[in-house]
């Protein structure tokens, strides 16, 4: 049923501006279209995205892989300093990089933005960030939704979420069943906090009376800008590694270090009965973690279940190819180094973290002291 002029005016009076929404779509359209290859049909603005899946006919047994996530309270910092062009990369990092964990190649993604008021330029900044990160990971952004919720969210409040789908050959799925005794655990450097633990970050700063627009000598710049360092994207480099004829088969498991920290996320991809001790002395946590821990009066060790502390991904690899794999990833721009060895011998597991997120996996603990 079409709306009469009076009903449209009433909707605007209620706080929903459909014209602003249309303007936002126009501003983001070119960035979204840039992620589209020949597989994407229908363009931007349809009720649903169309993706030609005929390429999957070349798979012997294609397994579809899906992931969904958001950015969390990091968006509060973007809102506080009115900077919205990086939060989209955080979303893609949280969603698409979960797909590559099982060895899958991302195909397409959709996003959802809920806001109190549509500001076209702000929404376009967010979506441009999503689109640019999708392009960097080889993912088509095939659709999305911006929903205006006046009265539920404040005029400048918003939240972002997304979902992605990928594909992997069934006999190429990575995971705990491939991990062997003696495998080496490689750490892949993070770009900073990524998108986890920001409730703790905000609490620490509030307790110290530090604002997001303040300059901080400890953090090395304007607080909000430092904290908005976008999540590193790992998908393209990891897929290139997996496609490498010499090194790809040496990768047995991958884990994305997100909520729960290093130990919990590594334990999820180790087989039951195995254990690994991650050597803290093998790396120096970046300054942002040391500064925040110092401001809170806490030790770095006490934050291990919250922050990634400089390790954004881990790879469990064949010991004979570990050095080559680490060198390959480092040459591709992601500093990579060994931090542990997988052991399947019986051991006293007191103090280890065993499994996580409902997965009855291996056991992991961090040992030693961080390199200063």
UniProtKB/TrEMBL annotation:
The protein's enzyme class: ligase
* EC number from the UniProt entry: 6.3.3.1
Listed GO molecular functions?
A: ATP binding; phosphoribosylamine-glycine ligase activity; phosphoribosylformylglycinamidine cyclo-ligase activity
The catalytic activity, as recorded, is:
2-formamido-N(1)-(5-O-phospho-beta-D-ribosyl)acetamidine + ATP = 5-amino-1-(5-phospho-beta-D-ribosyl)imidazole + ADP + phosphate + H(+)
Indicate the segments forming the PurM-like C-terminal domain, all copies: 180-343
A Gene Ontology CC term for this entry? cytosol
**UniProt key word Iron-sulfur:** no
Keyword set, alphabetical order: ATP-binding, Cytoplasm, Ligase, Nucleotide-binding, Purine biosynthesis
* NCBIfam families (UniProt xref): purM
What's the protein here called? Answer: Phosphoribosylformylglycinamidine cyclo-ligase
Record organism? Mycetocola reblochoni
